[in-house]
Amino acid sequence: MSALSQLDRGVAPIETGMLPRPFVVRSRREELADCVTLELAALDGEPLAFEAGQFTMLYVHGIGEVAISISGDTAKPDSLIQTVRAVGAVSQAICGLAEGARVGVRGPLGNSWPVERAVGKHLMIVAGGLGLAPVRPIIYWALANRDRLKSVDIVYGTRAPDQILFARQLLGLSAADGVRVGITVDLADQDWSGQVGVVTDLIPSMLRDPDETVAMVCGPEIMMRFSGQALVGAGVPAEETFLSMERNMKCGIGWCGHCQLGPHLICRDGPVFAYPAVRDLMSVWEL
Amino acid sequence: MTDGNIKSMADILAAHPLFAGLDKEITDLLGGCASNAHFSAGSYLFKAEGAADVFYLLRAGDVALELSMPGRGKLIVDTVQPGHVVGASWILPPYRWRFDARAVGDVRATGIDAACLRKKCDDDPSTGYQVLKRFLPVVAGRLQSTRLRLLDLYAPPSEVGRAL
Ligand SMILES: Cc1cc2nc3c(=O)[nH]c(=O)nc-3n(C[C@H](O)[C@H](O)[C@H](O)COP(=O)(O)OP(=O)(O)OC[C@H]3O[C@@H](n4cnc5c(N)ncnc54)[C@H](O)[C@@H]3O)c2cc1C
Q: What ipTM score was computed for the predicted complex, to two decimals?
């Protein structure tokens, strides 16, 4: 059998798709004890236009390459913002990069959040833990397009009050911005006046008109599974509920098959999927 | 309590999500056990180990369920929002609260006299069954929420399952 052509597979040409572009760390900000946001700039000065929800493959010389979502504003493509949690060799190396250090960047890769579907409707963003990073571009977009949306509600769950990602930014959003933010944590002491519980408890009370809502969800897979159930259970149409999936990635452009999830390659067909496309896959034991 | 008062309490109960849709006969009956309650921010609806003789349907304001931990102060294990119910320990012996319940902001609620309700449920098991069917999802929901938090979903991968 002859090898499939690139066109058949619908993937990027391997010659260009595998080549990292050199970027430099322009600034670095510690978000949480194990989490850093880097602002990167292309050495050749060319902006990196991207869409909300896309990711890059970030390469640390001599260590390795990992998939990281873009957490910046699509309207500001001259700086590439990425928020990374140190969990293993490569992500630790990324978090340890100092200003001026060089990295390789492939991308932007993957599809994007279908933000335009929310126009004229209520937008609900549901995020858990570090899952706030891949949805932050939606928040920037929603703030810039506030008058085109009926409402914007952000539901965020994390471990404890001191683990709120982008805390100043998130807590700074207010009714004045036309955004309602609900935060819930797993456990807290009495200094915390917000909610304690899981995001799925907050979803029903924050939904306005489920029929007219578009929901975008990102977080640990189990959290997304139960959030999908809560949203659809409360009446949000399944096909208007979107999730950003994660699997270990190698090539990021649909060649190697590392990130296969059932019939999907997450890098090529995702990372953003409509809920019906992944609902059943999330509860399969071995995949 | 006057008839008028019982009627209006019955209406208030029927409007609360916990009892919405119950037969009017039942909400009228439950109205006889209900009264209005108000708690200012920081005050306690009840304390752990106290007698579970009144539970609350929240109409406004959040309530934090807390436990005192030696050396760690008071920890909030759950927050109950308006439209939900505070207290399930009144259903089964020994009828003692397991947590402290603190008003986070000003709280308006409907208090239900637990002994009165238990008696009505015992006297008429079909009413009792309808009431229990309303409480079971509350308890199951709290269990589900607790189980999800046991998974410590947002922990760094190196700490997941630390307790195992
Ligand atoms: C589309 C996509 C977008 C992503 N966006 C971000 C992002 O914005 N910020 C960020 O910090 N990370 C993100 N990730 C996850 C990131 O790619 C992994 O954390 C990284 O590959 C880990 O590599 P490592 O060499 O540092 O650690 P490894 O040694 O590969 O792994 C260390 C530990 O982390 C666990 N781990 C690895 N990958 C994942 C994962 N995807 N989910 C959960 N646990 C994992 C491993 O099981 C192991 O226990 C994204 C992944 C994908 C697929």
A: 0.86
